[in-house]
Amino acid sequence: MSTLDPIHWEDARAMGHRMVDDMFEYLRTLPDRPAWQPMPEGVKNALQIDPPHQGTHLNMVYEEFTKNILPYPVGNIHPRFWGWAQGCGTVTGAMAEFLAASVNCMSWGGDQAGVYVEKQVLSWMKSLMGFPSDASGILTSGTSTATLIALAVIRKKYAPQETSDVGVNQSIHPLRFYCSSETHNCLTRAADITGMGKQNVVSVPVNARYEMNTALLEEKIIEDKKRRHVPACVVGTAGTIGTGAIDDLNKIADICARHGLWFHVDGAVGAVLRCSKKLSPLLSGMERADSLAFDLHKWLFVPYEAGCILIRDAELHKKTFSNPASYLALMDGGVTPQHEFFFNEYGLELSRGMKALKVWMSIKEHGLDRYGEIMEQNVSQARYLESKLQNHEELELVATGPLNTVCFRYVPKNWDTKSLNSLNKKLLVEIQERGVAVPSPFTTDGKFSLRVCITNHRTKNADLDFFLMELLKIGRELQTTKPWEA
Ligand SMILES: *Cc1c(COP(=O)(O)O)cnc(C)c1O
User: What is the pLDDT of residue 168?
Assistant: First the structure.
């Protein structure tokens, strides 16, 4: 008989213990390693071999993991990783992933723990976000997927009834979506995939604080109505990807109410700020959303991937995804009784794992208040970095927001914009390649800048000091060598 279980359980157990010990040591000693390092060609080649038909002893496979994979992650677990908007995970989250994979619950529905853990987590999320308890929701792989789900539900509501059967015809009276020019590109992608069309996502300009200009928003809605387009939804953002700006969510909610539009919020980064009593007033109006998409893998530090969509109209949500089949028939008892809950009626997937466990364990262990403290800490670290830039002779603040994001550049005297952009592009790459830190690029007003977005419970102020010190050293070096001119 052939099986994939260990032949010698004691050996396998010893191997498991070794892996756990190694990973704890790896996480404990994180700050001693570079924030990132490029993968050598040889290592990349080792990961491009033909599929093995014969097995290798697990010890050797693990050796290869420690040699070729472990040293070369993107770096987001490191205390000096501040690129894009990435979370750094937690030790408990990692352990929970192991537990979830061991139990390996296929959490589509029925009478089982996977479903009840997820329902528990979703009820916490509704409560945290100020949503009513009869709203619906589902955990997703992230905000991109959450947004896709939201757009499918919105289409169900606003498109002609037969759309689900005959497909989408957006050519005569297209559904229109409105968002600010700072909105994440997952929205246009979702509009494309759902057949709404990218050109029906109307980009509304922002004000000096990178927030949606709501007066222009209303003009665009009225204009579209005159053209017999069908205004369907306004997307507000709670924490833009560029500068962490938060749209005036109450104003947007008012406009949606006035015109009968759906109010969706992209809270990928910012929604979870409701964990902090101090910061949650910034999100005022978010609780009025018809749907809210947000991430748990960013500022809630749940290991990748974990996001969430909440939808006020649970019935409409279910109507969008429910699609009965005889092989999924519900019974009068057993594993799939009629009275139990089925997540495949609320999202894209049928087969799905127990994502909820890592969320449940983490929130239980730390408590929501602790997350709030970390977010406040990150926001004040951004202010600390900003204070270091003030009146600095060689550094210039380019853009900032109310949260955890600061964009700045290195500015030697008497350099024109074009040369400054070349210099700062090279500076960003050098800082990453020398393992100092990982900021990401951001360009506004034609100025290329280094963007620091601190969603990191491991960052200390000393990390920011070290980063600036190294940055100035490298900047001065590049300023004289000008390698981009070579
Ligand atoms: C990260 C992000 C997204 C996309 O979320 P994923 O979890 O990466 O799919 C959407 N909107 C904003 C504002 C983001 O920061």
Answer: 86
Nearest Cα residue to atom 12 of ligand 1: 268
User: Are the CB atoms for 93 and 358 separated by under 8 Å?
Assistant: yes
pLDDT at res. 312: 98
Atom number in ligand 1 closest to CA 269: 15
User: Is any ligand 1 atom within 6 A of the Cβ of residue 144?
Assistant: yes
Amino acid occupying residue 357: L
Cis peptide before 376 (omega within 30 of 0): no
Task: List Cβ<8 Å contacts ≥24 apart for 466-472.
Answer: 466/80, 466/436, 466/437, 467/80, 467/431, 467/436, 467/437, 468/385, 468/388, 468/395, 470/431, 470/434, 470/436, 470/437, 471/410, 471/427, 471/431, 471/436, 472/394, 472/395, 472/410
Give residue 165's pLDDT.
85
Strands (E), 254-394: 262-266, 291-295, 307-311
The finding on whether 266 has its CB within 6 A of some atom of ligand 1 is yes
Q: DSSP assignment, residue 476? A: H
Helices (H), 29-84: 41-46, 58-64
Task: Please give the structure tokens belonging to residue 256.
Answer: 């949606």
Mutate to test the pocket of ligand 1, among 74, 193, 246, 269 (most ligand atoms within 8 A of CB): 269
Measured between alpha carbons, how far is residue 486 from residues 235, 292, 418 in Å?
A: 45, 49, 16
d(CA 261, CA 263): 6
Residue 293: name the closest of 263, 323, 253 by CA.
263
Cβ atoms of 454 and 378 closer than 8 Å = yes
**Which phi and psi angles does 402 have, rounded to 5°?**
-80, -5
CB-based burial of residue 111 (10 Å sphere; 0-12 exposed, 13-18 middle, 19+ buried)? middle
Q: Are 371 and 128 in contact (CB under 8 A)?
A: no
Atom of ligand 1 nearest to the CA of 305: 7
Question: Residue 14 — φ and ψ, nearest 5°?
Answer: -60, -40
- If one counts every other C-beta atom within 10 angstroms of the C-beta of residue 320, the result is 23
Return the residue whose CA atom lies nearest to atom 2 of ligand 1: 268
Question: Which residues in the chain come in under a pLDDT of 70?
Answer: none
pTM of this structure: 0.97
Region for 408 from its dihedrals, namely left if φ exceeds 0, alpha if ψ lies in -120 to 50, beta otherwise: beta
Where b means 16+ CB within 10 Å and e means fewer, 375-401 reads bbbbbebbeebeebbeeeeebbbbbbb
Residue 172 has a pLDDT of: 87
Which helix (H) or strand (E) segment holds residue 387: the answer is helix 368-389
Q: Is 268 close to ligand 1, i.e. is its CB under 6 Å away?
A: yes
420 phi and psi angles, rounded to 5 deg: -65, -40
Q: Which atom of ligand 1 is nearest to the CA of 145?
A: 9
Of ligand 1's atoms, which has the minimum distance to the CA of residue 240? 13
